[in-house]
Amino acid sequence: MANSADSAMFHANAERTGEYPGPGVPVLHGVKWKFKTEYEITSSPSVSGNTVYFGSGDGHLYALDAKTGQKKWRFETGWYVHSSPCISEGVVYFGSQDFYLYALDAKTGEEKWRFRTGGTVNSSPCISEGVVYFGSGDHYLYALDAETGEEKWRFETGDCVDSSPCISEGVVYFGSWDNHLYALDAKTGEEKWRFETGASVWSSPCISEGVVYFGSDDHYLYALDAETGEEKWRFEAGNSVRSSPCISEGVVYFGSWGWDYYLYALDAETGEEKWRFETGDCVNSSPCISEGVVYFGSYDNHLYALDAETGEEKWRFETEYWVDSSPCISEGVVYFGGGDDYLYALH
């Protein structure tokens, strides 16, 4: 189970399980507030204390009051911010398509340091034991000292690393467009194993009970032994799986891209399908779960809430445009961004 501090990074925690502590929003009462930026929002928000952090296509990272939606500060980068922020020890870390990873003072938005890579940084950083891990379009996964921004190591793959790394028991897992999922020693960057799929890996992995789950453009969701990289099972969806899976109570949830408009729920041990829910368009948003309710966005302009056990719809919320951002749950509010330039807070 996730703990109360877990709202401070993409998909709730370092294992990227997507499970948030309750309460969630099992019954929709309406919009608590919404905040308009100057362009679409694909970044997934993170909540730390009473502040919501998120990036926008307008080139800024925003910090808003979680209760009122009032802007506390915004920080300008050189380009689109797709990366989801990670907050740790009073510092917010995030990447931008201007090739930089940034570290800002979480209260003031003042820059502490920045680190330049050789490509766009769409990957959402992960913090573990004072080290920040993230991927770049320059084909590398990086490990930096979280306090100083000094590089500790980098690992080269064969293509872009948009996948957001997850960390468990001293091992970093991430995907690359070179068709592989990698497992590296978190301290040294030494490769432990790699697993080849049939196409690019955009999906960010999650790990639970010694198993790594992730999707690929080859239309499969995979389950691998975290220690050895050996395949346990694979499940074929109708199209690319770019959504990052979430897992709770022995069930893994994920969406599909392209002409396959489903959110799937599979038995985590066997890969057997429990149910699927059809939307009106692609599901690129990564689902999250809180107290038996699964939340996710779709390109059919909705955010959905489903019963995790049955797949029955509990409610849907319509926006002006698509929902690519992955939702975040905190204190009875679900936060997410839309293609209509708004960050929403629903309660």
Structural summary, described in words:
- There is one protein chain.
- The protein is an all-beta fold.
- It has one domain: Methylamine Dehydrogenase, Chain H (7 Propeller), CATH 2.130.10.10.
- 0% of the residues lie in helices and 46% in strands.
- The chain is built from no helices and 32 strands.
- The protein has strands spanning 31-36, 46-48, 51-55, 60-65, 71-76, 86-88, 91-95, 100-105, 111-116, 126-128, 131-135, 140-145, 151-156, 166-168, 171-175, 180-185, 191-196, 206-208, 211-215, 220-225, 231-236, 246-248, 251-255, 262-267, 273-278, 288-290, 293-298, 302-307, 313-318, 328-330, 333-337, 342-346.
- The strands form eight sheets. It has a four-stranded antiparallel β-sheet, with no helix packed on it.
- A hairpin with a 2-residue loop joins β22 and β23 (251-255).
Low-confidence spans:
1-7
| CATH fold node name | Methylamine Dehydrogenase, Chain H
Q: What's the CATH class, please?
A: Mainly Beta
Percent in helix: under 10%
The side-by-side strand order for the widest beta sheet comes to 1-32-31-30
Rg (C-alpha, Å)? 18 Å
Per CATH, the architecture is 7 Propeller
Residue fraction in strands: over 45%
CATH superfamily heading: YVTN repeat-like/Quinoprotein amine dehydrogenase
Mean pLDDT: 96
